[in-house]
Amino acid sequence: MHRQFTHLLIISTLIFCFLFTSALFTYAKPHEDLVFEPIKFKPPVPQKHTLSNGMVLYLIEDHELPVFNISGLVKTGTIYDPIDKIGLASIFASVMRTGGTESRVPDALNEELESMAASVEVGMSPEYGSVSLSTMAEDIEKGLEIFADVLRNPAFREDKLELRKQQAVESIRRRNDNPIQLAWRNFSAILYGTDHPFGWYSEIEDVESITVDDLKAFHTKYYHPNNIMLSITGDFDTETLITQLENVFDGWVKAEIEFPNIAAIENTPIPSVNHIHKELPQTTMLIGHYGIKRSPDFPDIYALRVMNDILGEGGFTSRLMSEVREKHGLAYMVGSLMQTSLYTNPGEWFAYSQTRTEKTAEAISLIIDIVRDLRENPVPSDELQRTKDSLINSFVFGFESSSQIAFQQMMLDFRGYAPGYLETFTDNIAKVTAEDVQNVAQKYLHPDALTIVTVGNQENFDRPLSEFGDVNEIEIKQSEPTPAEPIPEASESNIAKAKEILAAAVDAHGGLDNLTAVKNAVSESNSTVNTPAGKADLQVKFLHLFPDKLRQDVETPQGKMSYVFDGKTVYVVSSMGTQPLPPEISKSFNNSVFRETIPLLINLAQNIIPVQYSGTEEVQGNPAAILLVQQPSGEMLKIFISEETHLIVKYAFRETEQGVTLNKEQNFSDYRDVNGVKMPYHIVQTVNGNPYIENRISSIEFNAELDETLFEIEK
Amino acid sequence: MKKIRYMLILFLVVLHGLASAQNLADRVVEHTYPNGLKLLMIERHTSPTVAPYILFKAGSVDESDDSRGIAHMLEHMLFKGTKTIGTTDYGKEKTVLEEIDKIGDMLDMERAKGTKADAEKITELEEQLKVKQEAAKEWVVSGEYTEIYTQHGSTGFNAGTSVDYTIYTVELPSNKLELWAMLESDRLKNAVLRQFYVEREAVKEERRMAVDSRPGGKLYEQFMAAAFTAHPYGMPIIGWPSDIAMLNREKAEEFFKIHYAPNNSVMVIVGDINPDKTIKLIEKYFGDIPSQPLPAEVTVREPEQEGERRIEVEFDAEPQMMIGFHKPTIPHFDDYVLDMISAILSDGRTSRFYKNIVETGIAVSVDSINGYPGARYNNLFVVTATPRSPNTTADVEDAIYTQLEKLKTEPVEDKEFKRILKQIDAGFIRALSSNSGMANQLAFYEGIAGDWRYILDWREKMYEITTDDIMRVANTYFTKSNRTVATLIKKEEPPEEIVDEEEAE
Q1: pLDDT tens for residues A468-498?
Q2: Domains in chain A, please, with CATH?
C-alpha cells in the first residue's frame, strides 16, 4: 500500500484489574457461570534517558532471553519528499542500509551482520523514519558500533542507488496488478490531490531524477541525534549501555532542523464516485472521506475508539463484518479504518470491501446504510458494553513484551499524547456512553459526502454505479520506461536510395573484399571517461573477433579488468574473480558488436538487415545522409554517412540503462587506412548531449594472432 | 484483527527459530490423555496472557473427490456456534436447518446441470431457501461465538486450513483460559453448522479475492495443479469454484466426525499458566470426548516425474514465475539438506540469489522454499521469482539455474555454513519471545512430524550436513525432468476488429 494503515494506539497502564461485566442473554449459556480471577499485573515501565547529544532513550532491561533490540524513530517521513522527486525518502531509507557505510562496503556490512545473526534496518513511513538493531546479547558492543556507523556515516554508493531506482521503477510498472493497491492509490489521490504528500505517488521520471547528492542532503537534513528516539530492550545493563551509546555517538552533535511546511487541507469532504476498469470477477471498493485533524489532547478519542470498533475495526464482531459478510455473504474481507495524522492533516476514514461484480451496488448501499444507522440511532446497550469490554479486556495485549511496551511509550510521546493516557485508558473507555458514540458518529462520519472508488468490471454490476453520483472513469495507464522509437514504414524509393548510399559507403570504407577479409581486429586506445567524480584516463585494448565476440581490457588506477562478451553474456574479469553482468548490459554489448563498422557494412551490403533512407542532416559541418536500421535490442540505429566522403561519421541511438532511457551518439573522425580499410582513429561518445567517452586510437591491427579462449569464460 | 483465515501455512520456512535447543527441551511440558489427546505447554509469565492452540491433522489432502474444499469450509463453519451458543432455541432451529439443507441440495443439483438447468425451478428454490433462511433468523444469534471471545479480550482469534491440517488459534488474558477450554470443547462436542449457504458465499468471495483477482494466487494454483498429477497436493485448498458450489452441511459434518477426534489432534498452550492446573482443566473439559479409529492416510503416491512440465497462466498483470522440484518430505535426510540449500540460496542479503540475481537487477525478488505445499507427504522445493523489466522470466530462469548448477559442482564455503548455523541457533532463542509463535511451531511439529522434538533433531541434523551432501542432493533433485515451471504472462489484448472495407460498404 502507498501508506501503511496506522491504527490509533491502544496502550498501557500501571496495574490492571479485569472484571468482566456480563451482558444479559435470553438463553442459558454455560460460559456465563464462569468466574474469572482478576488479573493483577504490573508491567515494566520504560526508563527515559536523554543522551548528551539530545537522543532520547526508552529502556527496559529484560533478562528472560539473551537478546538485544533497538527500535527507533526519526522525525522525518515520505511527506517531506520534494514535489519533483516523489519517492526520494523511501529510496533514501533503503540505500542508507544497502549502500554500506564510509568504512564498510555493502558486502562486508551484510556479511558482518549476518554472520553474527544480527540485523540493522532502516525504514520510512509517511510521518517518520525507522531504524532498528537486533543482536544476541553477546554481540551488543559490535552491534551498537555498526548501528551507529549506519546512522552516522552512510555512504549511499552509486550502484546501490541505481539498483534501488530500478526496483522502484519496476514497482511502478507493477502497481496496477493488485486491485487493492490500485484503489488505494487513486482514493488518496482524489481525496488530497496529487500535489499533496498524502495524495501523490511517484512516477518513473521522479525516480530517474534521484541522485546520490539528494540522498546525502536528506541525511544531512534530518539525521541528527536530537531528532532520534530509541526504544531499547533486552539482556543489558542500563548504566553500561548508556556509556556505550555515549561512546558510539561521540562527536555526533545536535543540529537545528527546519521542517518543510506541509500544506494543511481544509477538512471539507467533497463527494465523488470513481471507477477503474479491470477484468476481475470481484469489485474492490473504498468508500470514505477525510479522517480527523487531531490535537494531542483530543477529547473524542475514546468515544471514537468505541465507535470505530463497532463500525468496522473490531474484527469479527464489527457491524460491517457481521452484516456484509456474516449475514449477507457479500464479502470475505470487509471493514473500516479511521486514520489520524500527526501533523496538520486529517488522515482519512474509509470502509473497504471486495464483493462479486454482480453484487457491487448492493454491497455499497449496505455499507452506506450501516454508516447512516450509526449516526441516526444510539448503539444498543449490550453491543456498547461488549465493545467496551473487548477494548478493556484486550488492553493487556499492549504489554506482552518489553520491546512492545518500550516502543509504545516512545510512539505515544512522539505523537504528542498527554502523559497518563495509558494509565487512564480503560477508565476512559468505561465512561463512554451510547450518546457519546452517536455524537462522534455524527461529527466524523459523512455518508452524504463520500468518495467512492471501485475497481472492477462495471458492465456487470447489479445496478449502475451512477445511482451513487456522477461516475468519473479513471483511465489507468501502464507506466513504462520510454519504449523503443518506432521505425517508420519504408517506401520503395527510400529503400532504393539507402542501397545506393550504402554501396558508396562500402566502397569508401575499402570495398566488400577488403572488409570481409578482416576476421578480427585489435585496437589500442587512450580513453578519457567523464564520471560523476571527474575525468578519468584509461588505457583500453579492444579485441574484436568478428562477427560477435568482444573483449575490452582496461587498465585503471585500481588495476586491470576485462569485459568479456562471448556473443551472449558479458562477464567482468578482475582480481576479484569473474562475475556475469545483468542481461541488460549483455544486450547493450550485443548492440555494440552489431554496430561495429566492418560487420555492419558487410551485413548491410549483403541485404541481411533491412535498411532505409531517412533524410539528410548536418554532421561535423557537412551534410550526411541518414540510414535507419533496427538493432538486436529493437531500438533503432541512425547511421549518418557523409555525402562528401561516404564514410560513416556518426551513430545515434537510444539505450535504457537501469531504468533510464538515454540518447547516445558516437562521432567518428580521423579516418586512416588499415590494410585497405578506412578506420576512424577518433571516436567521441556523448550521452544526452554531454561528452561521455573519448577514444583516441593509437593502433589498429587486423587478423592478429588471437587466442579464442580470450573470449571464453571458464564455467 | 481481520478475519483472514490464511489458507496456507508454511512453518517450515519460519523454522529457523526455536529456542536454543536445550532451553526449549527443558521448558516443554507434555501430557497425553487416555483419549489420545496430546497437550504441550510452555510456562511463560512475561505478561498475563496465554496462547492456546488446537491443531487437527485434517487438511484438504484428506478430502474425497466429491468434497474438495470441505476442510476449509468446515473451518469457517466452526465459528457459527453450538447447540447453546449462536441460538436462542436449538430444538426449534434444528427443524428449519434440516429444511434448508434439503432445499439447498436441490438447488445445487439443479444449478449443476448448467445450460440444461431449469431456470424457473432455480428461481423458485432460491425463493424457498430465502424464506427458510429468514425463518431460521428467529432463533439464530449471528456471530455470538466470536462475540464471546471478543468481549473477553481475545486477540488473534482465527483459524487456518492447510493441505495437511487445520489449526484454531486465539490469545486471551490468562484468567480466561477456562473460558477457552469450555468454548472449544463445546464446539467439538456440540457444533452446529448454521448459516451454511451464506458462509459459502463468503468463501466464494475469499476464492475470488485470494485466487481469481490475485496474480500470485492464480499462478500458485495452476503451478500446483501442474506439478502434481496424482497426489491431492495438487488440488487447491479452497477448492475449485465448482467444488465449492456443491459443498453442503452433510459433507462438512461428515468430515468433522471423521477427523476432529482427540487422538487426531494436538493442543498447545503457551503463556502465563500453571501446567499442573492446566492438565486438570483440560481433563475436565476434553477428557470425556471419546477417542475413535483414525482415518486412513492418503495412499496415492505421486509417480516419478518423467520430463519437464511448463505452463503459462494469462493474467492482467506483469510477469512472475514459480519453479518446483519434487523431493521427499521429513524425516528423509535430503529434506534437511534442502532446508540448508534454501537458506544458502535465499536467506538474507548474503544469500546467493540476492547477490547474483537481485543485486544484479535481473529480478526484484527471488525466493526459495523447501516443503510446498505440505509436509505429510512428499512435496516440492520451490523457487519463486519476479523479474525486473526489461529482463524476462526466461532471463531470471537462466540465472536461477546457474545458481542451482553451481550447487552441484562447487562445494559450499565453510563461512556460508557457519553463518546459517549461527542464525539457526539465534532463531531458536528469538522464537521463544512470542507465545503465539511457540504455540504454532510446537503444534505443527507435533502434529505433522509426529513429535515436537523434531525441532531439536532438526538442529542437530543441520550441523551434520556436509558439502558433499549439498552436491549430492542438488544433483539428485535439481534436474530438468524433475521440474515444473509456471509463468504468469500478460493477457494478450484481443486484436482490434478489422473491418473489410468492401464488406463494410
Answers
A1: 999 999 988 877 776 666 777 778 888 889 9
A2: 44-178+203-248 (3.30.830.10), 272-474 (3.30.830.10), 492-711 (2.50.20.10)
